[in-house]
Amino acid sequence: MQEELTVPGQPGSLKDVLRHRFLLKLLVSKELKVRYRGSILGLLWSYVKPGIQFLVFYVALGVFLGLEESAGNRGGLPNYAIYLFSGIVLINFFTEALGNASRSIVGNGGLIKKIYLPRQLFPVASVWVSGVHFVPQMVILIGACLFSGWRPSLLQLAAAAAGFLVVAMLATGLGLLFGAINVYFRDAENLVDMLLMVATWASPVLYSWTMVQSKLGETFFNFYQLNPITVGVETFHYAFWLPTTDGSQSIPPHLLSVWIPVALAISAAVLLIGQLVFRRLEGRFAQEL
Known about the structure:
This protein is mostly helical. It has one domain. It has helices at residues 14-19, 21-35, 45-64, 80-102, 104-107, 109-114, 121-147, 154-184, 187-199, 209-224, 228-241, 255-281, 285-288.
């Protein structure tokens, strides 16, 4: 049976990414090679950067501001190092994925103007590259958790997987959205930079969710929980940090029954909106670039 012919250059969808998995693999490999070309440490930077970031935050917040529980400070968080790093691992994945995806179309302008291939491949490849950097950080986190007596349940591991899916979908959707808009309005890069600057502080990466609830009340806390990144970070704390404590700590109310499904729905909606906007604008990418 003869296959139906299609006109090249027509707007596509994320299904095209699945159909062109080989091209996606090539783009991921290209981005990694270009990023570490001439670098002495190479992929080891995936360990160095979060390590330095962790040390700075741990000393400033855990030691100086007393967020680390100790014999003389019972108001802090036990195993604050695990708490902090489990949040940093996920927020680093999001910030890198969104930052690179929003610049991916403009950054690959030379290739886009020369040949046609599904444009969605570029933002998705950027998210995958961030996933490659995410893996070694997870190895360190799991190693530290095991050293601290980590014994997670299947429910906790499933919650962490759901939290990662929430953040990955959100980063992909926003990456498609801002990646397309950035072709027409380069101010989008500055807007993304501001969003990424706020992202770390708008989620309980450095502090406890109980601080938000106690200081700002239940009503604001519910709005706070509508942030999918917040839910993702809380699932990582639930899966990696909570099993290393003495059991006196708790997770946000209704995290598993309400907030994870809500976060998945919001991230899926953002992914759909990002894809629709991308399809609407991609027709003139080559001309605008």
